[in-house]
Amino acid sequence: MDNIIAIEAFAALSQSTRLETFRLLVRHEPDGLPAGEIARLLDVPHNTLSTHLGVLARAGLVVSRRHSRSVIYSASLERMRETLSFLVRDCCAGHPELCEPLLRELQPCCPTDEGDSA
Predict the structure, then answer these.
(1) Whole-number Cα distances in Å, 104 to 5, 77, 92, 111
(2) Low-confidence residues in the chain, pLDDT < 70
(3) Does the keyword DNA-binding apply (predicted)?
(4) Which pLDDT score is estimated for 108?
């Protein structure tokens, strides 16, 4: 990921409704949500949401697929991973132990089977 792509992702997420939309879609992975359901859950008019989804899609943060008459939107977890990796790529100037608190903070969102047995 280069600076331009990262800036596009950050710009897309720098608006409240778009950030809420992206976070909602992350919570509904891997199934995604139809546009109408997103609008209902966030209490946003359909045409306004459509504009926001377009911005997120152009930044590569959401993808859509047609399912019957609905368009289902999903978060692009790959772009999220790329963006997070971009932020921490040069973390701690070669001292990975300094990044340990960050890594620990990310663990609760992605528990592993090994961590669940404790």
Answers:
(1) 27, 20, 15, 11
(2) 108-118
(3) yes
(4) 66
- Tokens 């409704």 locate to 17
The Cα 86–Cα 75 span in angstroms is: 18
Residue type, 114: E
| Greatest extent of the chain over all pairs of C-alpha atoms, in Å | 52
Domains of the chain (ranges plus CATH)? 1-118 (1.10.10.10)
What residue spans of the chain are helical by DSSP H? 3-13, 16-27, 35-42, 46-58, 77-88, 100-106, 113-116
Secondary structure class of 90 (helix, strand, coil): coil
Host H or E run for residue 112: none
- The position carrying tokens 């959401």 is 62
Cβ atoms of 34 and 72 within 8 Å: the answer is: yes
